[in-house]
Write the structure tokens for this entry.
Amino acid sequence: MANIGGLVLNLEALLLKTLLWNAQLLVALFFIAGFVSFYLENWGHAFRDKTLSHSRQLMYRVLLIVQAVFF
């Protein structure tokens, strides 16, 4: 521990908190990237894939709403 101007800094605790925060951020980024990829794939089926029937496109559009609300 270092004592600077009456303020006690525990560098080890600060380093540990920083490493844990970075690990949480990395996991969150992977989940975000997966969600965006899955959402964009469904978006393509819902609006750009002209080979699908209208009812199938409508199903994908409903799935987009469910994804946005519940995930």
Notes: The radius of gyration is 23 Å.
